[in-house]
Amino acid sequence: MSEKRTPFVRLAKRTDIDPKKAWLIRVASIVVALILGCIPMLFTGTNPIEAYSVIVQGSLLRPVYFRQTVKIAIPLLGCALAIAPCFKMRFWNIGAEGQITMGAMCATYFALYWVDKVPSAVLLVIMFLASLVGGGLWALIPAFFKAKWNTNETLFTLMMNYIAIGIVAWLQGGPWEGRKGSQLIPMFDDAARLPNLFGVHIGWIFVLVLVVLMHIYMNKTKQGYEIAVIGDSQNTARYAGMNVGAIIMRTMFISGAISGFVGFMTVSGANYTLYSGVADNVGFTAITVAWLSQLNAFAMIFISMLLAVISKGANTLQTRLQVPASISDIITGILLFAMLSCEFFINYRLIFRKKGEEVEA
């Protein structure tokens, strides 16, 4: 009879966990991350308490800082909402960066060439619709190939990011270049800019409305149910009579359209121009927001604001305490790593070997 030694530590899938305990683990992970973040600060001679105080002050405690923090959170929240249906369907849309860029590009065309042809309100509506179509069609390309030939959507959507960025880079130095040799697209006219409300462009209202709509769409509609079934098993979905390919393309178009809308808000509400880096890694950071929130639309508000506070506060930390940018990045990385790692302990538990379990027959 063969014998084998029981491992000292084993993993076991949690079948059920109390939601309160799950959120307690998440809060604990943030506390651990803040403690670990003190280590690089101490190496640079920075007082951790003072540093964290500066981060909070520089992102929340003054109206001007708070508005800047909200501006950072808006595209993060919008893009996380965009990719949530895809991820629930287990279609790994890594192309939000390119979809944002294409939506921004389509909106910019009308901002540059239609500004004198229609009233401001009409122009903004046209730019909005153009961004939806641009982002949606860009996302539809990998969805079609996935539905038709089962291509790898992760690589496909990732590569399309660089194509979109390249197109805008060509426009910068070519057809849409402003002053010759500047490699810059002209700034938008006031008529092509989103109005402000409480010091922030009105995109924040639309994004909050979108949170409610996405929650309803994902949890209360037939299409949301179809997305969930496909995410669980495509074979089950086909057996139930669902057209899996059509649902994939429909969901990706919606995802791309919302990402395109984020691009519209970025160029019309924040930057007032278009450039190749307009997405500014929002498409990638939003993946973290979506996963940390467990695809919960309302939880995404908190996660987006938390990351925005870190981002804005880190900038203040650099200028006020002369902390190197790399230290701010390390602190941000530690926090994100801890928050992502906590999901492991929510989904799995560790079983340590007890006496009497030394050998298994």
How would you describe this protein?
The protein is mainly alpha-helical. It is built from 13 helices and six strands. It has helices at 19-43, 48-57, 63-88, 96-113, 120-149, 153-173, 203-220, 222-232, 234-239, 244-271, 282-292, 297-321, 325-347, and strands spanning 4-5, 9-13, 196-197, 200-201, 348-352, 359-360. The strands form three sheets. It has a two-stranded antiparallel sheet. A two-stranded antiparallel ribbon has the order 2-5. A two-stranded antiparallel sheet has the order 3-4. The mean pLDDT is 90. GO terms for molecular function: transmembrane transporter activity. It is a multi-pass membrane protein. One of its GO terms (cellular component) is plasma membrane.
Quick structural summary:
Helices cover 70% and strands 5% of the residues. With 361 residues, it is mainly alpha-helical.
Secondary structure layout:
Blueprint: E1 4-5, E2 9-13, H1 19-43, H2 48-57, H3 63-88, H4 96-113, H5 120-149, H6 153-173, E3 196-197, E4 200-201, H7 203-220, H8 222-232, H9 234-239, H10 244-271, H11 282-292, H12 297-321, H13 325-347, E5 348-352, E6 359-360
Antiparallel strand pairs: 1-6, 2-5, 3-4
Helix pairs in contact: 1-13, 2-12, 3-7, 3-8, 3-10, 3-11, 3-12, 4-5, 4-6, 4-10, 5-6, 5-10, 7-8, 7-12, 8-10, 11-12, 12-13
